[in-house]
Amino acid sequence: MTTAFRRPSDRRVSPIFLGIVAVMAVSGWAVWTDFAEQTGFAVFLFVTAAWIVSLCLHEYAHARTALHGGDISIGAKGYLTLNPLKYTHALLSIVLPVLFVIMGGIGLPGGAVYIERGRISGRWKHSLISAAGPLTNVLFAVVCTAPFWLGALDGVPPVFRFALALLALLQVTAAILNFLPVPGLDGYGVIEPWLSYKVRRKMEPYQPFGLIAVFALLWIPEVNGVFFDAVDALLRGLGVSEVETYCGLDTYRFWQEWFGDQAPGCAMIR
């Protein structure tokens, strides 16, 4: 019988993760207090660091749920350290998600953890492991929008409010995309244990291409419009206006100031 020994280092929070949290805290303080000379750059650091933190916690949720489900190999793989470099390739986990934020304000599902499914019995456990990640994004969205739907925005600087609105946009888009029942995404992982063996075998070859197919569809204007209409409706239900998310993305792209491309309306609000 194979036994996995637990070492303290398997669960020790990574210094890399702590460093990212520190960047998030300091840049968030700089945005709140208007301490930064370049407010847009501070917003960029704050939102990017917070987004990477959420990616790490998304994958940690998968890993932790799998550990309790029976996969005792999780710790040895470094998944419980919250180190973003442990969640597959750094390009897929960090660089591409940040690029997608810059390009269009979409929360791209980031890295992935390799779970030894053979160690886990029970369909409910498998479904819960897949659902744990996007449920973390849902929780983040609730936290980011709490000041909006609680009506607690008095005293919150406009630029910080815009940054929270952008973070909420990223979490909502990430949750929706992850919950799509498309092979390779978490939504499919939720329903996969309940499918017949024949269907699962047919879907298996398509899993590496599911995310690519989704983003190819999002390039179609009609599909993109429906998707973002749904996102905007959810955010409005949480008290976040389209103007606030737009200004958040506009401020995030601080380099637009150099070319005079930032929206004048957002600058006036700030």
Automatic annotation (TrEMBL):
GO function term, MF aspect, one: peptidase activity
Record keyword Protease present: yes
Keywords: Cell membrane, Hydrolase, Membrane, Metal-binding, Metalloprotease, Protease, Transmembrane, Transmembrane helix, Zinc
Swiss-Prot/TrEMBL cofactor(s): Zn(2+)
InterPro entries on file: Metallopeptidase_M50B (IPR052348), Rip2-like (IPR044537)
Highest taxon of source: Bacteria
Protein name: Site-2 protease family protein
Taxonomic source organism: Streptomyces mutomycini
